Amino acid sequence: MSKTKKKPDPRRLTAFGLIDRYLLRLLGWPLAGCLGLTVIALLLERVLRLLDLLSQSSARFDYVTQLALNLVPHYLGLALPVAFFVALFIVISKLSDGSEIDALLAGGQSLERVAAPFVCIGLALSVFSIGVFGYVQPYSRYAYRAVMHAAVNAGWNGRLSGGAFIDDDGSMMTADSADLSGQTLTRVFIRRPDAAGREELITAASATLQVAPDGKTVTMRLKSGRRIGNDARGAYRSLAFDDLTTQAPLKAAAGLLRARGGDERELTLGELARQANSPNPVVPKATLWAEFYGRLARAAFLPFLPLLAFPLGLAAKRGNRAPGLLLAGVLLLAFQHSLLLGQSLAESGRLAPIPAVGAPFLVFTGLAVWLFVGSRTRPGDTPISRLVLAMGAWFRRMIKLLQPKERAA
């Protein structure tokens, strides 16, 4: 007698698929928006500092775009866990406010099943984070340093913008206006040392600039001007000219840029492992292993963020979003700084790399699992959620105490 296998109910499979797609669709735009806004905000702040740093020469502004692009992987890695958690918090709070979590639980879905698609996204982001932290960021970090080295050591490139000042190796030059190429100038003023080291001033109605083929000097052809300086006896001499040709040096790089790999943060995950297993690594082995495990811990923590976001997001149903987000920010900062502390302890030789980095990872992942497991029977009712409620009540009391004072003022 043959046994017939019971086919799965297609409606049940479709319902599960619909729930997953619905939850992921809710997460998509908040995650993209939070990640984009965070990266842009961090980049804008850094670009302002770069503009201030490289404002001494108009030619160096060309490097700002390259520097900003090389900073994107670094800030993307920093912003990813924060953006992921904020997006999770927004989605879970929305589901909780609309009683959709209660409806799913009443329909037979467990809290683990509701959190499953978010954990899957966390796993995908973990793989993405390993690619960014482990392979893209080391190259972009070295490229950033290479561009910064070129910008800091770059001298005058033979071009000048109107109204700009070129101050290079004791010489100063400016012009009222310049063409689009920056090589045809009007109303030029130059102050520089002459061959004997004495200061001389040159003014001209116009000038043309041309860089020599060797890239070491620039030829200046000055028209209708005056040259003023001191002679050997200290007396002033003035020379009017119709056409004067002179040369100015282009400053060479102050030093050569070292090869990639002198810093452990410039090594990929594979290079960190190979260097740590080599007999004579450039960087100490403890530092290499601490960096290796630190990158893996940051990436592996992402799938646990939904487990931490669910208790806090469900607690926000009662209007406690600000305390919940504040507490989440404190926990994420504590995790990041505890990893940095563990890496520094491993680098100093006080702890082995695995326990130094693994202990903070296990503490925070264990906290996330404990809070989530505690939310299964009574969603949103955990020690952390009670702390969030207490913080919210304290904030409301403080607001009520401040309101009469504002009215009296």
In short:
This protein is α+β, with helices and mostly antiparallel strands and 409 residues long.
Q: Structural class from helices and strands?
A: alpha+beta
- Tell me the β content: 15-25%
What oligomeric state best describes the polypeptide chains here? Answer: single chain
User: Secondary-structure element order, as H and E?
Assistant: HHHHEEEEEEHHHHHH
Major β-sheet, in short? 6 strands, antiparallel
- Number of domains as seen in the coordinates: 2
Which terms would index this structure?
409 residues; alpha+beta; elongated
Could you explain the architecture of this structure?
- This protein has 10 helices and 6 strands; from the N terminus they run H-H-H-H-E-E-E-E-E-E-H-H-H-H-H-H.
- It is of the alpha+beta class and 409 residues long.
- It has a 6-stranded antiparallel beta sheet, with no helix packed on it.
